[in-house]
Each structure stands twice: as C-alpha cells, then as structure tokens.
Amino acid sequence: MQSKQSIHGSWGSRWVFILAATGSAVGLGNIWKFPYITGENGGGAFVLVYLFCILLVGIPIMMGEILVGRRARQSPINAMRETAAEAGLNQNWSLVGWIGVLAGYIIFSFYSVVAGWVMHYIAGMGTGQFVDIGSEEAGQRFNELLASPEQMLMWHTLFVLMVVGVVAGGVNKGLERATKIMMPALFLLLLVLLGYSVNSGSFGEGWDFLFSFNPEALTWDSVLVALGHAFFTLSLGMGAIMAYGSYMGKKDSIGMTVLTIGALDTLVALVAGLAIFPVVFANQMDPGAGPGLMFITLPVAFGQMPGGQVFGFLFFLLVGVAAWTSAISLLEPATAWIVERFGLKRLPAAGLLGVVVWLMGIASLLSFNYWEDIKLMGMGIFDFLDFITANIMLPLSGLMIALYSGWMLHQKITRDELALKSNLAYNSWLLAIRFIAPVAVLIIFVVNLYDKLA
Ligand code: PFF
Ligand code: NA
Fold it and tell me: Where are the membrane-spanning stretches (predicted)?
C-alpha cells in the first residue's frame, strides 16, 4: 500500500496541493457567509469562538481526512472502505464516505444558486447598473432576481457547466490547471480590494467590529453556528479534502500543509471582513443585514464611492472565482467514485453528476419564488438544505472522521501517515482528534438539540 498511486493522477507539487485545497476552502463561505454570520452574531466574540473551532476542531479533522485519503489513494467512499480493511475494521465505515458525498452534493445544489447570483452581479457591476442606487432600490433589485426563476436558472446552469468543464478534465488537465490560474488571481484581487477598503472605508470601525470582544452577543446558537461554519469553511466532512488528499505526494508533510491551508482560509475570511465592514460602516449601513449583506448592502456602498464601479466589479469577480474553485472540489469526490466504480471516463462521469445536481439546484432556486410556501421545519427549501448540511451533516460526519482516525485506525497507521517530526506534535493531534474535537461537537449538538426541543 505504501507506494501506491491514484488512478486519477496526482498533484504536480506540494504547493499545487496547498493551492488546490485552499481553492476548495476559500469560497462563498469566506466572503459571503463569514461576514454576514459575524454581523448577525455580534462581531468580536463570535470571531474568537470561530478561531478556536478552526484550530482545535477543524485543523485536526482536516489532518484526519487527508491521512485517510492519501493512505488509500481512492475516492472517499473507497478510501474509508480500504483503510477500514487495512485496520481490520467493519466495512460499514464506508458509510461515512457516503454521507460526505451526499452532503457535498446537497451543498453543491444550493451553492451553485448563490454562485449564480454572484455571476448576475458581476455582469451588473460590469455594465454600470448599480451606479448611485439607494438601499431600497438595491433591495428591490435583489428581490427581483430572487423572484425570477428564469434568471436564476440561466446563471445556475452556466455555473454547473463551468464546474463540470473543469472536473471533466481530470486532476492534472482540469483541477490543477484551473488552480494554477485562479488562485494567484484570487489573492491579487483580494489585496487590491483590501487596499481600497483601507483607503476609502471606515477601516477602524470595521476592525473594531471584527476584533473587539463583546461576550453578551454570544449564545449557544452562535457557538453552533461558529462550529458548523468551521467545518463548512474548511470543506470538511464531505470528502472534498479527503479526495484532494488522495492525490497528494507521499513525502509531503500533512501537518504543515494543513496549517497552511487553515491559515490561508482564515486569513481570507478576516480580510474579506476587513474589506466589507469598513465599506458598510462608511455608508451607515447595518452589519447585521444577513445573507443580503453582500448582495444589497455592498452594491449600494460601491455605487456611491469613488471608483466603486471598478472595485465592485472586481469584488464580485473575486467571489465568483472563489466559488468556482470550491464547487470543483464538491463535484470531484463523487466523480472519482463513479470512475472507480463503473470504469467511466471523466467526462461522462462528471457530466452525469452535473445533470443530477443541476436538477437538485432547481428545487433550491424555486424555493425563492414558485415554491416559496413549501416549508421544511419552518424553513424554505434553500434554508433547510443549508441548515441540515452545515449544522447537522457536516458536524456529524466530521465527528465520525475524528472517531475513526483518532480511535479506530491503529496509531501505527496514523503515525506513519502523518509523519510528524516530534512526538509532541503527534500527541497534540491525538489529544485534539480523540477528545477535544468529538467532545466539542457532541456538547454543542446536545445543547442545541435540547434548546430546540425545550
Ligand atoms: N469551503 C467552501 C467555502 O468556504 O465556501 C465551501 C465548501 C466547498 C464546502 C467544498 C465543502 C466543500 F466540499
Ligand atoms: Na472557506
């Protein structure tokens, strides 16, 4: 098993893997979701809890996922099965792979709808449609988009095609090539936008909002949101990182790589917050505006600022690129599995999956208009899917992966695969993956369930 190669190919270098995994991690979660949930949960204290979740739960679990993927060099479903076989464990552990692939699928379906909105805004900004509009009008525009299944369907379709196009190219000619072009572009755009925000927004106010500690705003609910978001933002619990890990070089250090990916993802989220909140405050708008923060508040702000036209366009371009590289990683695990299981070529495998996920996305986008009245647990279809994936499926499958890699796999396997330089590092990982991560996930789960039922 040691010198095994993946039939799908492998990354050209350690940095390609880091960039690809960062491309998966950095997405709508960082630029759209993180700022608005931070706004809704009161700022500083939430950010602190979130950082703890990343460090103590996210990073160790990411190491667990990658080690399983690289050990077996197969799609998550088969990787779980094969490592279980190697360790003499029950074959049903492959179910964890299934939950992951399913969660990834569901996420793709609504992720693509939001990515579609982003593309609509790229076009709108690029053609000057937001110059000097007021917040009422901006809200109205956004609602018009949501009320139009045709518009949303068009963008959703285009986005699915863009993702299938890359995934169909395979690990090297598709994923790796896209990574090498898009990730440098992403970092460049982010820097430009940060510079703009520092110079033209209320930077100090934005900074204080993100980093001043105000514990009153913190509730159990916000802790659950922070934990769920730590999984979502690092692409954990759905096989994406496990699949990418299966194409990783045998000699590359998992620990250093994961720390880099986690740091970059966190950095982008914070920089996105620092790019957005100053602009929000400079225009006396509400940081707690919710999901509309990026689509309503920002266009108004940009529309009133000098150079806002160009920077607004660049901003949404950045979001679009980030969403694209993330969605690629949502489709990859299932595609790899179909190729392994049925011996299909990449194109038909990715195409087939693309059609199914496209259809599922339609249910999400209809929940904003024709199917508005359909409620599941009091939520519309879109919100419901977001809720069950981010707050239930991801923590659950993350918990299973923690238990699996911490308790079930022999330490000989994990030690060998992680190849950490010091015992201290390995023991810290073991402590986090065996106790801290599972206990944190469990407590928050139980408390929240109790909250919901009581
Ligand atoms: N990590 C991505 C984000 O923060 O937007 C979302 C995501 C991508 C989640 C891929 C899961 C995944 F497999
Ligand atoms: Na992210």
Answer: 12-32, 44-68, 95-119, 153-171, 183-203, 223-244, 256-281, 310-331, 351-372, 384-409, 429-450
